[in-house]
Structure to design on (689 residues):
């Protein structure tokens, strides 16, 4: 019988609530994944083009325990809850700040319930029981240390940029060039774009805590999905790291402090019109769907039995193959990706997809391909060759440090 | 046709932004008329707008540090642009802390008013934010529609009560009826009335005072108690009141009996006139 129980105190309840708000901007379901290293909250949007994960370490909680007398490594429950059941509990953050002294969250398997209790002033206790569905955890993988472009900036700076765009602005384009970073709003062509207001701003590299441009690129992503995350980052005054690559590849925003870390991975538009000359146009692949639907990266999801990816070789690779096109076998990919500062090489990976010529002029969102590893994995051994694209955050952090020290892999 | 203006003073920027925001609450689109000395936001009282008209006049020197324009031709030294004031308002609101804001007529994908703001940063290089607000050039042959409205031959002119008070009254009346009667007399009294099958409500204001337009303005033989009234769409009146963000130095209402309600707001450097036609 696997359970989890944690207690949050005072300010932490508000922070937790703010995370729920950010998660609610992404998807309609909330995954709770209690692990030894902390409680992970995840959400993904229906198009599978946006993913966010908030990981609260045990130190975030006043009290955090997994299982009732169970050993480490034994089965932990992964729950899926409806966002609209959870969000209202944390809706009024100001009221939570004023009234809630402590909160307890526990997961209990026999009754399939998540119990959220708020211990408020004046001896009032509010208990909410939410039914959960047991589910495999979904996780997007992202090889951030392989990204040629890296930015790190105080959340405030990004918030100031984003403030210039109206709340209804769906997508924005971030352009990275050796001497500047610019943000502008993105309007789909033909969408009454003659009447739209265009907003653009550019930043000098000096304004960033860290600025690394490996490849000139324009990435267009959904701003709406990012706002909640940025708001969370600003409220904690945390610097935000941004990792991305060439146009069409996903972008990752990341924050971390002593007790929590959070990630948002967004797919970016593969705009055929915006392709730079360095990207070679590969031969059309008739068997696969249009490249514009290209999944940016496949993700690995864990079995409910909590098997960890440590068994799989810690080789991280970025796959930009479309859903239907053949998976590139790892050795070739490694070759493609090793010199990361060579833009042409990175562009070559696009050869996996059919060329821009097969796509219509209109742009489409790349979706992150999420594939659950089911029991079939043993059958065709596919999964064994499927690269693990990201390690656990601890290992990933080490890799990031390695990367910084030796930028040319 | 050229236009280039620069606002450097933060109070001027703030004030200009508030004016544009007020206009944006009154109408979705309007015409911006630029002359060497003034800017006008104009809504011509066409039937399409329900006959509502608006005329807002700003003296450019009160806002702009630099102001250069070249009209359509030397004889017609004006520029008329159809614009969505909400876009302008949004663009201006985000750059309130700018060191300088330039407003220029540009040609991007279409004619635009470009708001370019230089924002302060911690580093040595300023951050530049540009907003391109699309506009439509109004051709010369249509200019006659956007002339300054003639003061109507009103029957009564009265100072308005505090706009906030008026707004809260009208807000509640709007829930009860679509139409509202405004009546006033030369004795400084004004009533707002609604009447439906179930209920009638009247709010009385007194001791408002009457603006001294001069003897030839109102008919001298008019009894001071006689009310001039006009029945208007309550939403139009509410729209006018919702947009007001600052208390004007003077607020007046001229009523043409069963004709039109002419509201005039005067601030130090901005004047706003709003015409609401009476309905039967």
């Amino acid at each position: 019988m696997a359970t989890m129980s944690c207690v949050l105190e005072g300010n932490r309840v508000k922070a937790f609530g703010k995370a729920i708000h950010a998660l609610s901007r992404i998807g309609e379901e909330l995954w709770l994944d209690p692990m030894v290293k902390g409680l992970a909250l995840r959400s993904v949007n229906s198009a599978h083009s946006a993913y966010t994960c908030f990981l609260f370490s045990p130190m975030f909680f006043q009290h955090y325990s997994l299982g009732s007398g169970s050993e480490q490594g034994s089965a932990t429950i992964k729950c899926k809850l409806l966002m609209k059941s959870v969000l209202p509990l944390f809706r009024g953050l100001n009221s939570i700040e004023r009234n809630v002294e402590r909160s307890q969250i526990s997961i209990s398997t026999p009754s399939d319930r998540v119990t959220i209790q708020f211990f408020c002033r004046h001896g009032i206790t509010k208990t909410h029981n939410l039914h959960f569905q047991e589910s495999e955890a979904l996780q997007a993988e992202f090889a951030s240390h392989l990204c040629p472009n890296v930015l790190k900036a105080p959340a405030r700076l990004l918030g100031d940029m984003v403030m210039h765009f109206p709340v209804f602005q769906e997508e924005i384009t971030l352009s990275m060039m050796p001497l500047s970073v610019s943000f502008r709003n993105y309007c789909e062509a033909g969408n009454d774009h003659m009447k739209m207001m265009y907003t653009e701003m550019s930043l000098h590299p000096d304004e960033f805590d860290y600025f690394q441009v490996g490849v000139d690129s324009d990435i267009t992503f959904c701003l709406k999905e990012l706002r909640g995350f940025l708001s969370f980052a600003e409220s904690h005054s945390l610097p935000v790291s941004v990792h991305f690559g060439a146009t069409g590849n996903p972008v990752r925003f990341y924050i971390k402090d002593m007790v929590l870390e959070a990630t948002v991975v967004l797919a970016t538009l593969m705009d055929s019109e915006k392709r730079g000359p360095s990207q070679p146009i590969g031969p059309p692949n008739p068997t696969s769907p249009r490249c514009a639907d290209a999944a940016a990266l496949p993700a690995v999801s864990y079995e409910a039995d909590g098997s960890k990816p440590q068994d799989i070789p810690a080789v991280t690779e970025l796959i930009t193959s479309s859903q239907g096109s053949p998976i590139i076998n790892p050795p070739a990919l490694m070759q493609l990706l090793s010199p990361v500062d060579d833009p042409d090489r990175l562009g070559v990976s696009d050869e996996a997809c059919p060329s821009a010529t097969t796509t219509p002029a209109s742009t489409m969102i790349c979706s992150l391909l999420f594939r659950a590893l089911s029991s079939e994995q043993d059958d065709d051994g596919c999964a064994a060759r499927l690269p693990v694209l990201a390690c656990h955050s601890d290992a990933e952090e080490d890799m990031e440090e390695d990367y910084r020290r030796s930028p040319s892999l | 046709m050229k236009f280039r203006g620069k606002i450097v003073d933060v109070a001027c920027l703030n004030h200009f932004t508030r004016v544009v925001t007020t206009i944006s609450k009154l109408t979705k689109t309007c015409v911006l008329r630029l002359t060497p000395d003034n800017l006008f936001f104009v809504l011509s009282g066409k039937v399409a707008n329900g006959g509502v008209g608006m005329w807002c006049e700003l003296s450019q020197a009160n806002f702009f540090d630099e102001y250069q324009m070249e009209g359509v031709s030397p004889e017609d030294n004006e520029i008329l642009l159809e614009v969505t004031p909400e876009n302008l308002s949004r663009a201006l609101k985000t750059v309130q802390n700018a060191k300088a804001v330039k407003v220029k007529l540009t040609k991007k994908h279409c004619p635009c008013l470009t708001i370019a703001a230089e924002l302060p940063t911690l580093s040595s290089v300023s951050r530049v934010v540009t907003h391109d607000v699309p506009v439509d050039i109004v051709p010369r042959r249509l200019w006659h529609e956007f002339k300054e409205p003639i003061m109507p031959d009103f029957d009564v002119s009265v100072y308005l009560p505090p706009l906030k008070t008026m707004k809260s009254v009208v807000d509640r009346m709007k829930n009860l009826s679509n139409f509202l009667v405004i009546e006033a007399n030369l004795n400084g009294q004004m009533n707002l009335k609604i009447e439906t099958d179930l209920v009638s409500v009247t709010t009385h204001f007194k001791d408002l005072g009457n603006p001294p337009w001069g003897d030839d303005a109102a008919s001298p033989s008019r009894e001071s108690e006689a009310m001039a009234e006009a029945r208007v769409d309550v939403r139009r009146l509410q729209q006018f009141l919702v947009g007001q963000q600052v208390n004007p130095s003077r607020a007046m209402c001229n009523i043409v009996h069963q004709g039109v309600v002419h509201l005039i707001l005067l601030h130090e450097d901005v004047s706003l006139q709003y015409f609401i036609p009476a309905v039967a």
